[in-house]
TrEMBL record:
Organism: Pseudoduganella lurida
Keywords, ordered alphabetically: Signal
Protein name per Swiss-Prot or TrEMBL: Uncharacterized protein
Position of the signal peptide: 1-25
Listed PROSITE patterns: PROKAR_LIPOPROTEIN
Superkingdom, taxonomy of origin: Bacteria
Annotated region described as Disordered, given as residue ranges: 303-328
Amino acid sequence: MQTNARSLMSRWLAVFLMGAGAACAQPAFEPAGPQAMPGKEVCAGNPKAASGSDTAALAALIAAPEFASVRPLFGAAQPQVMWWVRKARSLDLQALLTAFHEANHMLDFALSACHGNRAVFHYRGEVIVTDYVRGQAPAFAIAAKEIPDELKAQPNGRYAVYFGNRNVYRGDFYPLIDELNAHVAGAEFEVAVAGTPLYRDMAARARSINGNIGGMADFMLYTVAYLKALRAQDPAAWRKLVARKAMMAHVQRLWTAAENVLALAAPLAPEQGGLYQYPTAALDAVYAPALLAELDAAGLRHGSPPRPAAASSGGGFTTPAASFSVPR
């Protein structure tokens, strides 16, 4: 799913504003210029660098320990990160969440081209090359039939963008998992920066954010819905897909990481005085018995997400607050 200026992530980083607040200091931004995918230099692990005082300002910002998770991506796709930052003309949380998410997609598709259109993912500083080749499984739109109607009907929901227009081909299993990959990485970033000045500045200006954490849950749902639809529609194609061990190992890696992030994200929900909306409705669908059976059938291990506390206990979430670090 090639990224362009009308990005899906930038449309879906929903920020619910409270009004004007003090913004963090901003550098002088270079013009964004034309957008460009990473070139063949990434195949050799020799990515281009971006220049400018705005690049230096972002590099200085992410030198703090809380930004460790995005530093490898910044090094691997600097011009792409900076294009999104310059388009937003901001180094606030909203701009950075969009920039790193979209740059992750752009880098993944460039790396895929380096490896004969295999599904390739940049995640936690690693380049993960799988045994799935783009186009080997049907379009991910088949998942639509297994997504609950109430989630399809959500106003301004992600479903409308990714499934709503049947005339738009969004791709096969690779773009589906690439979205999950970028959302998990982005959700790890969201949790890691909670409590930083960047986070506090956004919290002063917004009631809540529906960003990577919410998108991660949606794509967990879309992934397991896809597996269910494919197994029912074409059992032979399903068997071929789940036999792609390297690809399914990355799905497992992302699923485990997502469940870990959800435990850390629950105390950061608005109900707890935090900023990040907690995706209860999507998770209720993901962890319904019929869909959990599909994870089991595909050999994917899973736990369960933290659940909202009972109203009698005062509301909020049952999972305690915890520190977050990105494994190496």
